[in-house]
Amino acid sequence: MNGVFDLGGTDGLGPVVTLDNEPVFRADWEKPAFAMFASCFRAGFFGVDAFRHGIEKMDPAEYLLSNYYEHWVHTVEHYGEKAGVIDLEELERRTQHFLANPDEPLPQRSDPDLLAFVDAAVKHGADARRESEKVAQFKVGDLVHGAIQRGGVVGRGHRRTERRRLLRRVGALPRPGTLTRRPDQSEGPST
Amino acid sequence: MTAPTDTRLRTQAEIAARVKALESMLIEKGVMTTEAVDRLAEIYENEVGPQLGASVVARAWTDPDFKKRLIANATAACAEMGISGLQGEEMIVLENTDTVHNAIVCTLCSCYPWPVLGLPPNWYKMPAYRSRMVREPRKVLAEDFGYVLPDSVEIRVWDSSSELRYWVLPKRPEGTEGLSETELAALVTRDSMIGVGPAGAR
User: Fold this and answer.
1) Dist CA A73 CA A59 (whole Å)
2) pLDDT at B27 exceeding the cut of 70
3) Which of its termini does chain B have fewer beta carbons within 10 Å around, N or C?
């Protein structure tokens, strides 16, 4: 997908704003938004590429201006609806309810398997490398430019028009979609 | 503040309510729990952060064989130190020298080597850094980070993907010959491993 998120080389977006001693999570809502990635991955909503694609489908203006973890909320809503887990009208109704009753507690449930999954996923992750019989088209030192393959080492927006020297080859990594996890798998992320 | 668009942006209260609503539904559907939220926050607030990358850098500065292994296969070398995992399944470490300075970016989103640096700072994920770092890195380093590199030093910017995460082995600061590995690790900043600052600064 070719969209506003592909920011490399775009001019006019202003200075980098850094903050000393920035907390890891800048607001309490960022914690559940962050935790939705691992939890919904486990539930089979998306793989890593699909997750990012859901973000890329956001309204472009909102994408540029919203808080980072709002992007994650968008993709969780998108795939939650597709998975038949999230009804968007019900979500809106509950949103209004929590807006009026911000201190109302969340439902409580215990899931030791999910906790074990969290620790295992953080420690071991999910390797994306694949064996490939394809012959590399370029060698280190070659001049290359865009349109080779999306999401790879070359081919992003800032290289669409500029020729760059290839510094390093890293081998075969999956095409989008191959990291998708099936909902019937229960132990650890698939590779 | 009015945004320069008709797109309606949410207030913090509206975002919080939206996330809480979504969380409540995901809890009821058996997808998540508040204890998993607390555990994940605990991990990335207190356990997995740039102190891990700093320990790897300090080892590389003091153990030439380890440094060779780190440059050859960062993922395996980090695993030797018990450092591995999510969003760092495949890592490449780039060594800064007197003639080459490396820096990392993710132009498409926010890819970053979590096992060694933790979660990225907000500026790393925002449009300004992602757009400009690949176009005018020398200027961004000097003007936005106050890090001026001599013109004789080549700057290489590495664009991470979700499958492959780069990070930087900064130069060991001058005058640190007598320091222990632990003392050296304290000199290694997060920014020096992103490539937007030197080690030993602070």
Assistant:
1) 13
2) yes
3) N
